[in-house]
């Protein structure tokens, strides 16, 4: 589905997209606009000291987060996507072009490093991480490494019969995302 079609049910929304595509910002805006609870999967997965939650515990917490009928969950975790998407009614894919994503992720990383902004559970990005070529240590490297993979993954998912129960909304520019949210606000 494109943003010009009929509005989906929008009660259990999964927001996905490459790092820097605006998924968390959009998820927060959707939650506020629609009066839904917002859950950021990064805040569940990344424990204090950047420790990763073990897979089964992460899945259990995601299962708990999807209980209830009114939520917006953002994140790309394939290890829990089946849980989120089984419960969701809508997937919003922030499919922004590289020319939007990469300046955003660099700017966001620089800002977070400069302000020492807390992300989740006491974790902060370290300025030196931006220079790391390792995706595990750098959100910039992560975004570059996963951009094409995410585009293929979500493009394939839109036509996968396993996800036929979902409405897909693919937003391809910041202007398109802004217009779609404005339309939601007007029609709600």
How many DSSP H or I helices?
7
Order of helices and strands: EHEHEEHEHEHHEH
CATH class of one domain: Alpha Beta
Average of the residue pLDDT scores: 91
- Give the number of DSSP strands: 7
Sheet with most strands: 5 strands, parallel
How much helicity do the residues have? 40-55%
Strand order of the largest sheet: 2-5-1-6-7
CATH topology heading of one domain: Rossmann fold
Provide the CATH superfamily of one domain. P-loop containing nucleotide triphosphate hydrolases
Would you write up a description of this structure?
The chain has 7 helices and 7 strands; from the N terminus they run βαβαββαβαβααβα. By secondary structure, it is of the alpha/beta class. The chain has a domain of 126 residues: P-loop containing nucleotide triphosphate hydrolases (Rossmann fold, 3-Layer(aba) Sandwich). A 5-stranded parallel beta sheet has the order 2-5-1-6-7, with helices on both faces. The protein has a two-stranded antiparallel sheet with strand order 3-4. The mean pLDDT is 91.
Task: Give the arrangement of secondary structure elements.
Elements: E1 12-16, H1 23-34, E2 37-40, H2 41-45, E3 46-47, E4 51-52, H3 55-65, E5 71-74, H4 78-87, E6 90-94, H5 98-115, H6 139-159, E7 167-171, H7 174-187
Parallel strand pairs: 1-5, 1-6, 2-5, 6-7
Antiparallel strand pairs: 3-4
């Amino acid at each position: 589905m494109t943003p010009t079609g009929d509005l989906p049910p929008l009660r259990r929304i999964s927001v996905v997209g490459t790092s820097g595509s605006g998924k968390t910002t959009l998820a927060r805006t959707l939650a506020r606009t629609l009066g839904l609870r917002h859950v950021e999967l990064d805040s569940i997965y990344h424990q204090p000291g950047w420790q990763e939650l073990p897979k089964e515990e992460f899945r259990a917490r995601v299962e708990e987060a999807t209980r209830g009928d009114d939520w917006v969950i953002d994140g790309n975790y394939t290890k829990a996507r089946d849980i989120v998407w089984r419960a969701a009614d809508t997937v919003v894919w922030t499919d922004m072009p590289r020319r939007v994503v990469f300046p955003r992720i660099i700017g966001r990383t620089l800002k977070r490093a400069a302000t020492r902004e807390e992300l989740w559970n006491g974790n902060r990005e370290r300025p030196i991480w931006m220079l790391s070529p390792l995706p595990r240590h750098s959100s910039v490297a992560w975004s570059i490494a996963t951009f094409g993979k995410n585009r293929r993954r979500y493009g394939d998912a839109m036509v996968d019969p396993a996800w036929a129960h979902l409405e897909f909304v693919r937003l391809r520019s910041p202007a398109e995302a802004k217009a779609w949210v404005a339309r939601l606000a007007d029609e709600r």
